[in-house]
């Protein structure tokens, strides 16, 4: 009898199986590369969206603070540029420190004090003080918190040489304006120069004889700038220079001075690019710092990275599950 079956060719079968496995590996590698590219693009898109959001929000808050400074300075300049205040400041500066002012000048003090008090009440200030360049207090509104005297001379010198206004760091002021206890308020001092009295023919005299110190409540400002449009999934803080280094001001739940984590690579008034915030402990934070124009302040806004990147993690898990399902299906198809 003749054997009609074709001879077996084990080498060709093994070659076919090897080729199939190679195709399978190539398809798996191609699918993996596509998934990796898609996931990386999704990651870049999400980080770009988060960066744009943080930059827009922090920049907007910084602009609110800058606008407040400009508006408050214009408010004070209405007083400092009035002829009455300029003449009074010039005459007081001309008196000797160890001698009382002339009677006609002393008679103006109650009226000028009332003028200062009306200015404070009309604009909701904590107080206002008129200080001579030598540190003497010429006038003070009723219950005005005294400005920080230790740095008056240095700030007045800066005011003369560098700018037309000085803003002090935000600090805790008293237990309320009425002295009846309660939580200390946050406030700051805005220093504005009082120009000298105008000369009859030569225009204004050089220099300035006094400084107007406006003590402003910072609580409403912090709430308006740092709490507006807050989505609630992050923190917003104001970084300012302090006596022993940078310090933070938090808005929630109430405006307060807050500790600043060590190792933060951010100086007050500097910008900070989008990235992970160092020194935040086990919780990773994504942050942006926006400087406030005209002030040594920075608005620092951050988000919890785990919460912000949660959609990306879900997408990665779904992509991994899809890759595993494709690999299993291809394996079964060629088995």
Please provide a written account of the structure.
The protein has helices spanning 10-80, 83-94, 103-106, 109-123, 152-161, 219-227, 305-308, 310-333; strands at residues 127-132, 137-140, 166-167, 171-173, 185-194, 210-217, 234-242, 245-250, 256-258, 272-277, 285-291, 298-304. The protein is an alpha+beta fold. Strands 1, 2, 3, 4, 5 and 6 form a 6-stranded antiparallel sheet that branches. Strand 8 (245-250) and strand 9 form a beta hairpin. Helix 1 (10-80) packs antiparallel against helix 6 and helix 1 runs antiparallel to helix 8 (310-333). The radius of gyration is 34 Å and the shape is rod-shaped. The two termini are 36 Å apart.
Oligomeric state of this protein: single chain
Which structural class do the helices and strands define? alpha+beta
**Tally of DSSP helical segments:** 8
C-alpha-based Rg, rounded: 34 Å
Low-pLDDT residue spans: 176-180, 200-205
Report the helical percentage. 40-55%
Distance between the termini: 36 Å
Mean pLDDT over the full residue set: 78
Major sheet size, sense and barrel closure: 6 strands, antiparallel
Strand/helix succession: HHHHEEHEEEEHEEEEEEHH
Number of strands: 12
What proportion strand?
Answer: 15-25%
The gross shape turns out to be: rod-shaped
